[in-house]
Amino acid sequence: MTKKNTDADIQFIEALAAVLKENDLAEIEVQRDYGKDDNLSVRVSRTGAVQTVVAPTAAPAFAAPAASAPASTPAQPSADPTNADDPAQHPGAVTSPMVGTVYLQPEPGAPAYVSTGETVSEGQTLLIVEAMKTLNQITAHKSGKLTRILVEDASPVEFGTPLMIIE
């Protein structure tokens, strides 16, 4: 790659970062071919504001995962009954910012990041969503008590799937 391509590539990467921010995307991956044996492969991703997103339109698809997590139901009796019907509507819902696979611990056999009843701090890692071989840490959007874990380890999730409830 020549010096000219390097300068152009830096401008290209900065433009991708701007597109990422303007369109509220989590990740962009692009490959540019300049000719024989001369190409650029770029993946730009961000974390932070896109880590917790509430998407109430997909709520019917979440009934099965919430029902399949009986270990987290003991903390539910104090919850508002309307929130029990639709966890995505709960103000403390932590939702998946992407399609992927949920992992509740950093590696197999390791202790879980958090457990039901534990107090969490804003910005604390709660779990990981793997998407396209990339591990994305999902953090708490507020401090509080983790009252429900709505997903099981290694289960697939969709964009907007409620993962946990923080009160």
Brief characterization of the structure:
The strands form 3 sheets. Strands 3-10-8-5 form a 4-stranded antiparallel beta sheet, with no helix packed on it. It has 167 residues and is of the alpha+beta class. It is 18% helix and 31% strand.
Report on this structure.
This protein is of the alpha+beta class. The chain is 18% helix and 31% strand. The protein contains 3 helices and 10 strands. The strands form 3 sheets. The chain has a 4-stranded antiparallel beta sheet, with no helix packed on it. Strands 7-6-4-9 form a 4-stranded antiparallel beta sheet, with no helix packed on it. Strands 1-2 form a two-stranded antiparallel sheet. The longest helix has 20 residues, at 3-22. Mean pLDDT is 76; it is low at 48-83.
What is the secondary structure topology, with strand pairs?
Elements: H1 3-22, E1 27-35, E2 38-45, H2 63-67, H3 81-85, E3 93-95, E4 100-103, E5 119-120, E6 125-131, E7 134-139, E8 144-149, E9 156-157, E10 162-166
Antiparallel strand pairs: 1-2, 3-10, 4-6, 4-9, 5-8, 6-7, 8-10
